[in-house]
From TrEMBL:
This is Methyltransferase-like protein 6. It comes from the Eukaryota. Residues 1-19 form the signal peptide. It catalyses: an N-(acyl)-sphingosylphosphoethanolamine = an N-(acyl)-sphingosyl-1,3-cyclic phosphate + ethanolamine. InterPro entries: PI-PLC_domain, PLC-like_Pdiesterase_TIM-brl. PANTHER family: PTHR13593, RE10370P (PTHR13593:SF103). The gene is METTL6_1. Keywords: Disulfide bond, Lyase, Magnesium, Metal-binding, Signal.
Length: 509
C-alpha cells in the first residue's frame, strides 16, 4: 500500500509541474490512405489459404472501392482545454465530443467540390467545407475537426424513426447530422451520418444465418464498463481517471449504436449493509473494474443494461467476455473463499441472463440461425474455463475470447503486431472453434504516465481510431473477427464491420 501511495504522489507532483499537452501524430494517415497498393500487397507475402484463394476477388473489390467517393462522421475523444479557467466548474465553454469529417475520393477533388453538413431534422445545410484552396490550388486534408458537438443521445426507442415510409432508407436512423460530398455540378456523390444501428444483425440475417460468430467481423469495446462522460474536473485534474475511462457511452448505448462484443473485468469488494442505525453487516459485492480501478457500476447494474437491450431486440447476439477477475480473485490464497465467490458470480449470471445464454459445446459454435431460433443470444467468455484448479464452472460458459494484444504505447508497433498476428491460419475467421479479438488500442506505460507523455486515454484513442478505415475496411478485412477499441464513436468501426459482413457473405440471400 505504501508503494502504491508513493507512486500516486509522484504522478500528482509530475502532473502539477507539467503543462497540459495534446498528444497528436505528426502524420495524418488520411494523406496517404489511397495513394498506393503497397500496404495491401505487403499482406500477401505470407497469406493463409483463405486469404490466398480470395486474392483476386479481394483485389477487384479493393479497386472497385477506389472508384467510389466516401464521406463519414466520427466523434472526437479529445477535448481542447486551452483558455478554460481551471477554477470554473462549468464545462459549457469546452467543445466536448466535437464532430470530425472524413472523406476520400479516387480522383482529386475539383474546384467547386465541397463537403456539406446538414441538420437531420430539417435537412438545412448548416456548414460547407470547400476542398480546394482557390488561392493556392491545394487540396485540403481529408480530415476536419469542426466546431459542432455531437451531444449524448437518448437511445431508449430502438425502433426505426421512419419519416419517408421507406423501409430501406438507412438515413432514417441518423442522429443530429448528415454529411455529404457535393461535386461542382451540385450532385451528391456520397453521404453518411452517425446513426443508431441496434438491429444490424437482424438486417443482414439472411446473409449470416448459416455462419458462426467466428466468421463475422464484430465491433467491440475494450474495457466496456469503464465509461464516464467527460468533465474537466474529472479528466484534467485527476491523473488516474485519465487512464481509467475508455468509453463515454453506457453499456446500453454501446449496444444500441451497434457494438456486439464487450470486454468486461470483475472484482469483489466488501460493502456495508445498513440494517438499522446500530448494526452494520459486511457483504461482498461484485463491481466492474478497469484493472485495480473500480468503475461506477456493479456487475448487476451492468447486466441489467444488457437485459434492457435484449428485451427490445430479437436477432442481436452479444459476446460478453469476462476476461479478467481481479481484486478478490487474483492473488487470493484461500481457495475455498475464491470458489465461493466464483459460485456466487456464476449464480448471478444465470439468474440475470439465463434464458438468453448460449450453452458451451465442444463441437464449436452453432450457426447464427440456430441461435436465433432458440433465442440464445448471449455468449459468456469465462476466464476460468478449464482451470486446472477445478474452479467452479458452468456448462453455459465458453472459454475467454483470445485477445491479440500488442501491449505497446507506440502506434507503429501496434500496426506491426496486427500485421503479424491477424491473418495467421490458426486465427483465420473460418476457424469455427475460436473467437479472437484484436485489441486495437494503445497501452500506456508507467513511465509514460509519470512523465505525462500521453495526457490520457482519450488522446491515445484518437491516434489509433483514425486508422481503422485503412486497417479493417481494406488491409485486414478478410481475416478480422472482433475489433475492440476505446471511445468507439471516434472511429467508423461499426459501419466498417457491417459493410465487411455484407461483402463476406454477399453470395448468401
Amino acid at each position: 500500500m505504501t508503494k502504491i501511495l508513493f507512486i500516486i504522489a509522484i504522478i500528482i507532483i509530475v502532473q502539477n509541474l507539467s503543462s497540459h499537452t495534446v498528444f497528436s501524430s505528426d502524420q495524418s494517415p488520411f494523406e496517404r490512405l489511397f495513394n498506393r497498393f503497397s500496404d495491401f500487397l505487403k499482406d500477401l507475402k505470407n497469406p493463409n489459404n483463405q486469404f490466398e484463394n480470395h486474392y483476386n476477388d479481394r483485389l477487384r473489390y479493393y479497386e472497385s472501392q477506389l472508384s467510389h467517393t466516401r464521406v463519414w462522421l466520427t466523434v472526437s475523444s479529445i477535448v481542447n482545454v486551452t483558455g478554460h479557467n481551471p477554477n470554473d466548474h462549468n464545462d459549457n465553454d469546452l467543445l466536448i465530443r466535437a464532430l470530425e469529417l472524413h472523406w476520400r475520393r479516387p480522383e482529386p477533388p475539383q474546384p467547386g467540390d465541397y463537403i456539406a453538413l446538414y441538420r437531420k431534422n430539417d435537412s438545412i445545410q448548416i456548414r460547407t467545407f470547400p476542398l480546394i484552396d482557390m488561392k493556392t490550388n491545394h487540396t485540403f486534408p481529408r480530415y476536419y475537426k469542426i466546431d459542432l458537438p455531437f451531444i449524448y443521445q437518448n437511445l431508449t426507442n430502438l425502433n426505426q424513426t421512419n419519416n419517408n415510409n421507406n423501409n430501406n432508407d438507412i438515413y432514417d436512423n441518423c442522429l443530429e447530422y448528415i454529411v455529404a460530398y457535393v461535386n461542382r455540378q451540385g450532385n451528391i456523390e456520397s453521404k453518411s451520418c452517425i446513426r443508431m444501428q441496434a438491429r444490424w444483425m437482424e438486417e443482414i440475417f439472411e446473409r449470416i444465418k448459416d455462419h458462426r460468430l467466428s466468421e463475422l467481423m464484430i465491433p467491440g469495446t475494450h474495457d466496456a464498463s469503464s465509461y464516464e462522460k467527460y468533465s474537466y474536473d474529472l479528466y484534467e485534474k485527476d491523473v488516474l481517471s485519465r487512464f481509467q475511462y475508455t468509453q463515454d457511452e453506457s453499456l446500453y448505448n454501446q449496444l444500441a449504436y451497434g457494438i456486439r462484443y464487450m470486454d468486461w473485468r470483475v472484482a469483489v469488494y466488501n460493502q456495508t449493509n445498513h440494517t438499522d442505525n446500530q448494526t452494520y453487516n459486511w457483504i461482498e459485492e461484485f463491481w466492474m473494474v478497469h484493472d485495480m480501478q473500480r468503475n461506477r457500476i456493479t456487475l448487476k447494474q451492468a447486466l441489467r443494461q444488457v437485459i434492457k437491450f435484449l428485451e427490445r431486440t430479437t436477432h442481436e447476439i452479444i459476446i460478453i467476455d469476462f476476461h479478467r477477475f481481479v481484486h478478490g480473485f487474483d492473488g487470493e490464497k484461500n481457495l475455498p473463499i475464491m470458489r465461493r465467490r466464483l459460485q456466487t458470480f456464476i449464480q448471478m449470471i444465470h439468474e440475470q441472463l439465463g434464458p438468453y445464454l448460449i450453452p458451451y459445446s465442444s463441437k464449436g459454435l452453432p450457426t447464427i440461425g440456430n441461435l436465433i431460433a432458440r433465442n440464445q443470444r448471449i455468449l459468456i467468455g469465462y476466464a476460468y474455463k478449464f482451470d486446472v484448479r477445478q474452479l467452479p464452472d458452468s456448462i453455459m460458459f465458453w472459454p475467454p475470447v483470445q485477445h491479440l494484444w500488442a501491449d505497446t504505447d507506440k502506434l507503429s508497433e501496434l500496426e506491426s503486431y496486427i500485421q503479424e498476428q491477424i491473418c495467421k491460419p490458426s486465427r483465420s475467421f473460418n476457424n469455427i472453434h475460436l473467437l479472437r479479438s484484436i485489441m486495437a488500442e494503445l497501452t500506456p506505460t508507467v513511465e509514460g504516465v509519470l512523465f505525462n507523455r500521453y495526457h490520457g486515454l482519450r488522446e491515445m484513442a484518437a491516434l489509433v481510431n483514425m486508422n481503422y478505415e485503412r486497417w479493417f475496411r481494406y488491409r485486414w478485412s478478410n481475416c478480422t473477427n472482433i475489433v475492440a477499441g476505446d471511445f468507439f464513436l471516434g472511429s467508423d468501426l461499426i459501419d466498417i464491420s457491417i459493410d465487411v459482413n455484407r461483402e463476406r457473405f454477399q453470395s448468401s440471400k
